[in-house]
Specification:
five-stranded mixed sheet; two-stranded parallel sheet; 10 helices
Length: about 325
């Protein structure tokens, strides 16, 4: 686990807010409207009525906020920089995001080149430390396209990797706020048990699939880690979310793979347009099996409001689709 510029501070840094705003106004390409706050189940945005002694933890996206909230419990304030449904890879941060970051005591990021905007973001809030939660993960390299050879950033999609994330969160919170060490340790232990239980359940669900049907065909290649864990073969249109549309070559490659292996269902992710994958389904006779959640939790009325529900929903959708249900 790497920690950068560990200088936790309490409260809202009023003296630096004006400076941050002036710097942020000059940012190009950033929308002027700040993202909506995350649901309360994922993160709690600090207000003037909340106890000032609580540490403020900011995460780069909603999945990490849910993990951190499970470890923090009621001893720290956790919020996500991005709202549910946001595409994280190319996120464009706003002046409001910088203000929120300046008032945080710690920022938790994924790393592995997921947050391609992070370096510029951190340079604008140099006094706020950040921790990379993927430290200790055994990386899987991206196999194709422009990102070939670089680490696949979606390590949290593996429940086994999630245990490492939880441990890194626990360490970061204990170092930041040792007074609540006992609570963070106990919460982390309980959360690890829940992750291990769902990992076992999902392994049983996948095991009912015939070996020749264990394909996971998606828009983004975000499932390499869970495919490794559950003995699945991964097929995707593009390696990392960066294209507005799939290229004809990418679509044709997946169509050929689906036809050759008689794959019964294909899928796409919630944060991208599924038009290209629908094209694959139409050209092959495969069923469009549904939507996976990867880079974001769902809104409160959706099926993936927590990390555990996200994993469970994805595997259930995969198994049902491949079984033709």
């Amino acid at each position: 686990m790497q920690v950068s510029r560990w200088q936790p501070q309490l409260g809202f840094r009023v003296g630096t807010i004006a400076t941050v705003l002036l710097m942020a106004i000059g940012l190009t390409g950033c929308p002027s409207t700040p993202p909506n706050p995350s649901p309360s189940s994922q993160a709690t945005k600090p207000t003037t009525t909340q106890p000032s002694h609580k540490k403020v933890i900011l995460t780069t996206f909603t999945v990490l906020a849910d993990m951190a909230q499970n470890v923090a419990g009621d001893k720290a304030i956790v919020e996500s920089l991005t709202k549910p449904g946001a595409e994280i890879h190319g996120y464009e941060f706003t002046p409001s995001d910088l203000v929120r970051a300046q008032s945080a005591d710690l920022i938790l990021e994924n790393g592995l080149n997921l947050e391609r905007w992070a370096e510029k973001f951190y340079s604008s809030v140099p006094d706020v430390p950040h921790v990379t939660l993927s430290q200790g993960i055994t990386e899987i390299a991206i196999a194709s396209d422009a990102y070939a050879g670089k680490p696949n950033p979606h390590a949290w999609m593996s429940p086994q990797n999630a245990l490492i994330y939880v441990e890194n969160i626990r360490k970061a919170l204990v170092e930041l706020d040792s007074a609540n060490q006992a609570t963070y340790n106990a919460n982390a232990a309980k959360y690890r048990q829940k992750i291990q239980a769902i990992a076992q359940k999902l392994r049983q669900e996948v095991s009912i699939l015939p070996a020749n049907q264990r394909y996971i065909v998606t828009c983004e290649g975000a499932f390499s880690y869970i495919a490794r864990d559950y003995n699945l073969k991964e097929v995707y249109l593009w390696a990392v979310n960066s294209e507005q549309q799939a290229t004809p070559k990418q679509v044709e490659r997946v169509i050929e793979t689906v036809k050759t292996n008689q794959i019964p269902a294909v899928f796409c992710e919630s944060t991208v347009n599924n038009e290209a994958q629908q094209q694959v389904a139409n050209a092959t006779g495969a069923k469009f099996g549904g939507v996976f959640y990867v880079d974001s939790l769902s809104p409160p009325d959706g099926p993936a409001t927590t990390y555990l529900k996200l994993i469970e929903h994805n595997v259930s959708t995969l198994v049902s689709g491949l079984q033709g249900k």
